[in-house]
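Sequence, please.
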């Protein structure tokens, strides 16, 4: 009974940065990353099945997560889709269902920010806990979705999309800060500041936006270094595949 309570406890943990659970999370991500990049030709040939499979996993993960928070915690403070990784997960589902490049343009840059919450986790539960697994699955999908989009549709981050993504980030951040004031939550990590808390507000908030914009530019720069890898499969706007050379 105690093990079941621990498994369903949304406040179990948190894991230590660089601790066993965190290292296992990173290793699992690396395994999927190596499999995706190393098997990119197979993924490209089976893009429809891969995308639909990832979509199903993403929807199940999000459903379990929200139901879990609603049943076991203060949902308004902890369970709303107002962490950037949760926003990214929703965008992942939309992209995988539609193939929209405009959605991917924003998601690709939001994914860059999600690296921070993965490499420097704050308030994340261990792997013997339901929410530890939903965190891991969410981030594996969110962090690798740009690579999947590149492999299956030759998507690349663009310079104009940086500013669209940043505009959406500002809108999202304002919603998160407003929700924190109403619910006592810590969305966008603006109440319990995990790093550089000495800055205080509003400098912590403004620094978060500046760091996000810097990550967007770094993502764009790194993407320019990746060579083309042959013909890609275009899935935009349809459920069909067509080979684009």
């Amino acid at each position: 009974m105690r093990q079941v309570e621990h498994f369903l406890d949304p406040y179990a943990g948190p894991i230590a940065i660089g601790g066993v659970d965190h290292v296992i999370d990173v290793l699992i991500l690396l395994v999927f990353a190596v499999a995706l990049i190393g098997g990119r030709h197979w993924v490209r040939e089976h893009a429809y099945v891969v995308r639909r499979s990832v979509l199903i996993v993403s929807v199940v993960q999000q459903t379990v997560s929200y139901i879990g928070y609603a049943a076991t915690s203060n949902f308004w403070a902890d369970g709303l889709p107002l962490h950037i990784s949760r926003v990214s997960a929703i965008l992942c589902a939309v992209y995988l269902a539609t193939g929209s490049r405009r959605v991917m343009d924003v998601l690709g840059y939001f994914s860059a920010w999600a690296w921070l919450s993965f490499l420097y986790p704050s308030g994340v539960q261990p792997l013997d806990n339901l929410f530890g697994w939903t965190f891991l699955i969410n981030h594996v999908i969110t962090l690798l979705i740009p690579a999947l989009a590149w492999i299956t549709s030759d998507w690349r981050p663009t310079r104009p999309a940086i500013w669209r993504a940043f505009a959406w980030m500002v809108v999202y951040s304002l919603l998160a800060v407003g929700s924190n004031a109403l619910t006592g939550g810590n969305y966008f990590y603006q109440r319990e500041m995990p790093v550089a808390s000495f800055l205080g507000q509003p400098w912590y908030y403004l620094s978060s936006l500046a760091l996000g914009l810097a990550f967007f530019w770094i993502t764009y720069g790194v993407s320019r270094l990746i060579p083309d890898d042959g013909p890609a499969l275009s899935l935009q706007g349809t459920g069909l595949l067509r080979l684009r050379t």
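The chain is about 65% helix and 0% strand.
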